[in-house]
Amino acid sequence: MQTFSSQDQAQWIELGGGTRRKIRSYNGEIMLVEVNFDDGAVGSDHSHPHAQISYVLSGEFTYHIEGKAHTMKVGDSIVVDGGKIHGCTCVKAGTLLDVFTPMREDFVK
Amino acid sequence: MQTFSSQDQAQWIELGGGTRRKIRSYNGEIMLVEVNFDDGAVGSDHSHPHAQISYVLSGEFTYHIEGKAHTMKVGDSIVVDGGKIHGCTCVKAGTLLDVFTPMREDFVK
Fold first, then answer.
1. CATH number at residue B41
2. Which of B26, B75, B101 sits opposite A30 (nearest CB)?
3. Strand spans (E) along chain B
4. pTM to 2 decimal places
5. Within an 8 Å CB–CB cutoff, is residue B64 touching chain A?
6. Residues 4 to 63 of A: which have CB under 8 A from any B CB?
7. How do residues B39-94 score in pLDDT, each as one tens digit?
């Protein structure tokens, strides 16, 4: 559990492929992370049982859920039901806020 | 359920006291809303069974959880366990992203 998370202190974790993640606030039920993408970087199609909301903090993305494409600009948001295959391509470098329920145990192991 | 939510199309709902809310993406398990505050506006102390994360999109806030104060600036985040009494005072006009699990049925009735 991490109650308060300062933007200044959270650290980027390099994920490869021009992407990196910051773990932000979480408890057992909900977790906020930031994911930063270089121009053209890809969040490969995947699924997980957690429900997820993505919000575009900066940049521009093409987001796919079960094959349906959504163009996402700053301030746009999308929800992904648990188990649905989703991914994105970064059209213009920037950052997504991703929020998961329950929290992603796999991100803190 | 509202899968994709465009920043341009989401509407502010006036809540009074210098605060207003936009309902963004949600399903049954998770809901994103924006709450905008005028300078000095107060989010009164309250609690709900939903777990919540707040993220400062703009402005500055003093956030209280069970009497403990946190100064929150742009990019800072905080998690509130379900049932905990929390509230905030807006120090500099701006917007919080609030994410709830499960979704807030009371916001869409």
1. 2.60.120.10
2. B101
3. 4-5, 13-16, 19-26, 31-37, 42-46, 51-65, 68-72, 77-80, 86-101
4. 0.97
5. no
6. 4-8, 24-27, 29-32, 51-53, 55
7. 999 999 999 999 999 999 999 999 999 999 999 999 999 999 999 999 999 999 99
